[in-house]
Design a protein that fits this description.
- About 5% of the residues lie in helices and about 20% in strands.
- With about 260 residues, the chain is mainly β.
- It has a seven-stranded parallel sheet, with no helix packed on it. A three-stranded parallel sheet has the order 2-4-6, with no helix packed on it.
- The chain starts with about 20 loop residues before the first strand and ends in a 10-residue tail after the last helix.
């Protein structure tokens, strides 16, 4: 384990124990080996963490404010109820993100963060909130936004709002009735995705791939819809406003003239 600017700290645990809620501020960490560590209510503020291993760790109620975290492995960790605010999980110079493969992110919140190129494949993300974030090229392939109520009932809750998800992969996600409003879904992959009844109001909706996408009863009011062949999808029950009628009519090959023509 290597810790920059803290040569006096020999053990990870010694740097954490500060009463009931540990607080670490204004520190730089490189190549931390925190695999299997267990710690609750840990808070980082104005810190930098690079190239560190948090695999299989249990860090419920983790909080990070105004931090830079990149090239870190959180795969299969437990980060339930975590809060990340004004943080960057992406390093632009080397295009490095973080790995949340199979991570438990139940009720986690990312607010005003850069999570570009982060991997959330197969993560458990029921009740997750991603708000006001930059999320270019993220991997949400088969991310689980659901909980199983019974053998025949699956319930999904997620808020992916006012965020830029361009070039991200949402293959196989189940986001029925979830709030995706005001976000940008430009050149995203939505194949095998279920967005039935989802709130897509005021979105930029221009997927690059959408094989077997389900949109039944989705709310598309004021959405900018591009690159979609209307004939290939079931738009029954969707909500739109008057100015969007032309888009759907043109997509169906129908030309509408004024009544007095």
């Amino acid at each position: 384990m290597s810790i920059e600017h803290a040569p006096e700290t020999e053990k990870w645990e010694e740097s954490l124990t500060l009463g009931n809620e540990s607080l670490i501020e204004n520190r730089n960490f490189v190549n931390l080996d925190c695999e299997n560590i267990n710690h609750e209510y840990l808070t980082f503020r104005n810190c930098k963490i690079k190239g560190s291993n948090f695999k299989y760790s249990s860090l419920p109620n983790l909080k990070m404010f105004n931090c830079e975290i990149y090239d870190c492995d959180f795969s299969q960790a437990t980060l339930n109820d975590a809060e990340f605010e004004s943080c960057s999980f992406y390093q632009a110079d080397n295009a490095l993100g973080c790995d949340f493969f199979r991570t438990s992110l139940l009720r986690a919140a990312f607010t005003n963060c850069n999570i570009s190129l982060n991997n959330f494949e197969l993560a458990d993300a029921f009740q997750i909130s991603i708000k006001d974030c930059k999320a270019h090229g993220c991997n949400f392939k088969h991310t689980n936004f659901t909980t199983v109520v019974s053998k025949s009932k699956i319930f999904s809750i997620a808020e992916l709002t006012n965020s830029d998800f361009r070039y991200s992969d949402f293959t196989g996600v189940y986001l029925e009735k979830c709030n995706l409003s005001c976000s940008r879904f430009i050149d995203v992959i939505l194949s095998e995705a279920n967005l039935e009844g989802a709130n897509l109001t005021s979105t930029d909706f221009a997927p690059s791939q959408y094989i077997n996408l389900q949109l039944f009863q989705a709310d598309l009011r004021h959405a900018q819809i591009c690159n979609v062949n209307i004939k290939e999808l079931d738009f029954s029950g969707v909500k739109i406003v008057e100015w969007q009628q032309d888009i759907f009519m043109e997509g169906l090959g129908i030309t509408v003239f004024p009544d007095n023509s």
